[in-house]
Amino acid sequence: MALLQILRYPDPRLHTVAKPVASVDTRIQTLITDMLQTMYDAKGIGLAATQVDVHERLIVMDVSEERDQPLILINPQLVWTSAETHLNEEGCLSVPGIYDGVERFDAVTVSALDAQGVSRVVESQDLLAVCIQHEMDHLMGKVFVEYLSPLKRNRIKKKMLKAQREEAQ
Ligand code: NI
To answer: By C-alpha distance, which of 72, 142, 138 is closest to 110?
Structure first.
């Protein structure tokens, strides 16, 4: 197992559109193990492969209190969304310390392969639904701050760059 480096906004690599996973092989299984470890270590509830600079359609999540219910989605596709949407406060491991409201569907259903490469349909609502939509955005190269106003986004960009400069010293 290995901890992976998480790309930080505004790293341009976060805007790469991921390609489908061609085969759920040992390379992908190792990546899943490492991404889960990285996500738990960073105390996150979700991590997309894009965030660790692997541009393939793979997401790991765990929204349970006990942090013992990992959910893996490979090549996820939205198959249904609720009519209702809600403004939720979101954060992101690639934008540490920033939280802001994003409008999301209350419930979504996705089809995806699991860690064994088996096709599954996952129904979700509330926090899990928000997390799935946030992570699927990452696979499309979209970071949640892109939903905010240009003014807020620029402020966040400056703050992130300043923090990275300070860390580098
Ligand atoms: Ni994120």
So the answer is: 72
* Cα–ligand 1 centroid distance for 138 (angstroms): 7
pLDDT of residue 157: 97
Q: Using the structure block, give the residue that is written with the tokens 């995806």.
A: 112
Mean pLDDT of 89-109: 97
Say what the pLDDT of residue 111 is. Answer: 98
Q: How far is CA 78 from the centre of its chain?
A: 15
89 belongs to the catalytic site: no
Q: What is the pTM of this model?
A: 0.97
The burial of 25, by beta-carbon neighbours within 10 Å (0-12 exposed, 13-18 middle, 19 or more buried), is given as: exposed
Which one of the listed residues 65, 103, 135, 146 is annotated catalytic?
135
